[in-house]
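Input sequence (292 aa), recorded before submission:
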Amino acid sequence: MHGHGEREPLAVTDAVRRAEPVLVPVDATASEAFAVIVAECTAQWRANVAGVVEGRDVESLHQTRVGIRRLRSAFSLYHALLRREPEVVAAAAELRARALPLGRARDLDVLLAGPAVGGLAEAQIAALGALRESAYDEVAGLLTGAAWTSLAERIDDLAAAGRWRYSPDPPARTLAGAALERRWARVIRRGAGLRDLPAARRHSVRIEAKKLRYGSQFFASLYAGSPGTDPLVLAEVVATLQDALGELNDVATARTLLAEVGAVAPEPDTGPLLEAAVVAWAEVAVLAPFWR
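Predicted structure, token format:
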């Protein structure tokens, strides 16, 4: 494992594995769709582990985290069925807890690549670099450790259609419509008056937007040719809202990380970011849901 300061982040390479389309057959059951979705999410993060562990690559870490977040969203979208399965509920909770170190590493990557470090002293930048290396040490230990490997194997096993224990097993489209409607309603309801919401409430809108975006991508093939906004177009519009709220969150996170190295961030002008989020929410609100 690399010590602090021994290696600079590698440039993004073609080896980085990004999200790929999820192709669920139109006549699939909920369990069959879940197996397809989980297989894609786990394939994404597994393919990027080497870039994180061996190369300390920024984009490899990001895509590993995206794969895990997509998987967590899948668990959430399937909550109505999975909540009665103790093993699945336990695996989802463990995934959330164990993946936390990836968030800190990603936050440090974003900070070090952004404008906030421009006015820092060399010692402070070096201290942030040391924090990054330490965060990557922890992530590398996590992703190569026995506990993570065991968790990943349990998730594979639980997701396999042959191991599904919930009965009856409804059509995938039935589950998808209900799950997407729930997230859509939350985004619209919670995002009303977004300009005046406290940070915690804005964060909840961002979380529901993430689930709506990934769910639209997961179930897109079930709604080919349906009336309403194309699923992948809707996902992209929702992504704009998610990204705008994410930038606001990055500002708050940067202040916390800078304080760890004795730096005080200048008071940011978050007005334009907030206005972008308000505009993005309005664009989402006028879309025609494809699952109705």
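Checked by second reader. The mean pLDDT is 92.
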